Amino acid sequence: MRTSQFVFAVLGKRQGTGVLLPGNLILTAAHVIGGAHSATVAGMHREPQRLRVVWSDERLDAALLLSERRLGPTPQLSTVATDRPIPGCMILGFPHIQRDEERRPDLDQFTGTVLPMAGLLRHTLTVELDRPPATEATDGPSPLAGLSGAPVYADDGLLGIVRSVPRGRGHRRLECLPLTALLADNEAYRWLPDDFAPPRPVTATHPHDQPYEEEYAEAVGAAYRRTRIFGLDELGKRASEWDLDTAYLSLEAAPRDRETVPVPRRIDDLLADRPRVLLRGDAGAGKTTLVWWLASHAAAGTLGPELAKLNGLVPFVVPLRSLRTRGGGFPSPAELPGVAGLVIDAAPDGWAGRVLAAGRALLLVDGLDEVTQDDRDDAHTWLSGLLARYPDTRCVATVRPHAVAPDWLGAERFEELTLLPLRGEDIQAFVTAWHDAARLDAGPDENLADLEHDLAQQFRHNPNLAELARTPLLCAVICALHRLREGFLPETRWELYDSALTMLLGARDERRRVGTPDGIRMSVEEHRQLLQRLAARLVRAGGQTEFTREQALQRLEHDLPSMPRVRAQGTPEEIFTHLINRSGLLQERTDDVFQFAHRTFQDFLAAKEFVEDDSLHEPLHRAYDQQWHDVLLLSAGHCTRRDLPVLVEGLLKAGSDTRRRDLKTTLYVLAALAAQHAAWLDEALHRRVRKAVKSMIPPRNREQISQLARLGDYVLPLIPDPREVTGEAAGMCVDLIGEIGGSAALPTAEAYASVDHGRIARFWNRFPTEAFARNVLSRMPSNAVIGASTAEQLRHVRRVASIHSLIVTGSHAPEALVSALAGRKPAALSLLDNPLLADLDLLRSVDCSRLETVVVEECPGLRGVSALAGLPALTRFQLLNVPADATLDLRPLIETQVRITVSGIPRKNVLGAGVLGDRLAVR
């Protein structure tokens, strides 16, 4: 981040310099302002603007000017934390003698040494310049005139501003106001935003850090700004890689620790206020893509307003799969810059540690599930130790949904988020983006527009197809197969993977009329045989996902003697090169380190090998290990009529043998999913599976609910009658019904409508809107909490006879809210995430005689609250996450008895705060 973007020329009673502080404030010397109420400021390559003076102190010789608009990124504040001189510091300012051709003030730069012990009694920050600035006349102005208010930097950290140039020192001494003196002044401090980062201590400068950091950011961008597009590798190397700005889809996620089922929110919003996140997601859900996107944009400082706090942080990406392939341990701080294999020179000594200590690191740990169960304890120890040593480090770690226990990193203050399956609008957005990329190199006879329209229509009208496209990977597979098959698609997830492999291993070259450019011709099945043995070897090695060329060649040397037709066409090295170049299934991750295009394809091929090698006992023996669960499930599709009962009975036995109810539930669910693959399976075995699954209902926690919900409609007949369960058990049944959702679950949801104060209402998003309102919400008890997030839901709120509490989320016009509330008399009303809301005047048009509580959150345009003053029953008002630079007028509520909570805004910006006293809480 260039320090020049923080420096401004200030034209008050005289010319001076100013520097940007958090909160769109400009700090300058008070004598530059000269008692005026405003001053003109101009940055490099920016138009001048007039700013008002909000604070000035002649004793400190400092003043603050406030801008109504954003002036630049947030600067780094620093403080001297040593008695020893600090050489290599820098001063930037606009001295009188520095002018451009049009006589406008121009920026000048000086270097010097901070002397912490000089001026100690006067609380002055003293800087000794490295050389005299210029020769001057004895009776003329100082050659440094105009430098008052200029910032003093140690590396990129602001230490203070210049106040004066003492006489008798040859103009080599500068006396400065230390930033700590400004922050100690209560009146000045209150103008800073509540969430500004405190100054970081400085004991020395490191002149090589900043240039290296800029180079490091470029290397991160080069490594992570592009991702491969599944099914489009025939476009050629450049076109088959998607720029992440195009490819990235802001996925929906949900916090894991909520008692209620939250409305899905974009992952960008959820990450904004969570310094540490454990992100769970299925295979292909987009976890790694998110990590890459965060790394590249944080390094470039180009994240949007939701994640602006991450801009300028230094991303350290730790792909755990790569660590295991290289046989290394978990990285020390000094090893973090090199662990991702970036194309960059070694970092300056101690650089990573300094970044971590300053709280400027963004640690991105990808794939906690890709280390063995035994190694995960070591991973936990490493990560918790690193964060204990550097407690201000932001961190996102990714993992499969059930690879680690709930709250596995709870002691380290991690919050858990779970990526949600793609829904209608996201699927449509992905389809559009995929076909846009395909057009880069489409043939003249290929009508991609018609294909895109057809697929979009299929997704809209075929719920089963939309259910298959749960993740970006699966959605890409569907797009690719739809294109290849000109509109015809598989019906199950297993058939989807099988068809994708066939496409990659054979149909791709046939479609392109590619012959044998390397002299090697292999059938689809021959490709599969070689690759499935390699995949099984990786899975047996504890779920390893990367392998070296040497490991691949060893595997081929072992297998090729059993494949004489392939062996006759080339050496193991030549066959491996062919697999890399022609299969489309293997990718080179770094020099001589390879991986399957996706972990799911590796597991699919490994499952095929275990079945065909009559080795199902291997994955069954490891059924306790979550890493093997996908292999076990995918094995079902490969099984013959003879093999499938072995798999199902093995899973039932593994489930009965464990006392851990969570694991027992998972294994019984896997048995049921495997049984669903059967064209024929003994009815007695089907009954045993149903009995096993039923024994896990009611579930006892969220983990068991999410597992049972994987079975979808299969579970519904096994849920007990609501008259047979009470208390928390009944509530867990409600949550299971809601997690399953869909039309088939409506009768069961209706039966449970009155359980636990209408708890099923939380799951409205999971059901057809009108049918749920008609059949379920109409049966709600009088104390139910109803939530609506879409316009369609809002229209159907009228079907609820009585609403105790209504929660409305999303951008809804006041007129729509009034219509929804017509005839309702809620006791509590919450309005969330609504940028259209400017005031609460809508409440004047509805019956609020029973309204006791109003909550408004994430409604950035709301300023008018006078409508609340006339509500007779109102006792509590919460206005949360108000923009920090807003001004909020609460004076209309002074004569009421309402207790008010406000967050996100400093108390000084609340009009009426003093009179409201302890009735107002500002967080």
3D structure, described in words:
With 923 residues, this protein is of the alpha/beta class. Helix content is 35%, strand content 18%. The protein has 32 helices and 35 strands. It has a seven-stranded mixed sheet with strand order 18-17-23-19-22-21-20. A hairpin with a 5-residue loop joins strand 4 (38-43) and strand 5. Helix 16 crosses helix 17. It is globular and about 100 Å long. The two termini are 31 Å apart. The relative contact order is 0.05.
Outline of the structure:
It is built from 32 helices and 35 strands. It is globular, with a radius of gyration of 32 Å.
Describe the protein's topology.
Elements: E1 7-11, E2 15-21, E3 25-28, H1 30-33, E4 38-43, E5 49-57, E6 62-66, E7 76-80, E8 86-93, E9 108-115, E10 125-129, E11 151-154, E12 157-164, E13 173-178, H2 179-184, H3 186-189, E14 200-202, H4 209-224, E15 226-228, E16 241-243, H5 244-247, E17 252-255, E18 265-266, H6 267-272, E19 276-280, H7 287-300, E20 314-319, H8 320-326, H9 351-357, E21 361-366, H10 373-389, E22 394-399, E23 415-419, H11 424-438, H12 448-461, H13 463-468, H14 472-484, H15 493-511, H16 524-540, E24 546-548, H17 549-559, H18 564-567, H19 572-582, E25 586-590, E26 593-596, H20 599-612, H21 617-621, H22 629-638, H23 643-657, H24 661-675, H25 683-694, H26 702-709, H27 727-740, H28 746-751, H29 769-775, E27 785-788, H30 791-796, E28 805-809, H31 814-821, E29 828-832, E30 853-857, E31 876-880, E32 888-889, E33 899-902, E34 910-911, H32 913-916, E35 920-922
Parallel strand pairs: 7-12, 7-14, 19-22, 19-23, 20-21, 21-22, 27-28, 28-29, 29-30, 30-31, 31-33, 32-34, 33-35
Antiparallel strand pairs: 1-2, 1-4, 2-3, 3-6, 4-5, 5-6, 8-9, 8-11, 9-10, 10-13, 11-12, 12-13, 15-16, 17-18, 17-23, 24-26, 25-26
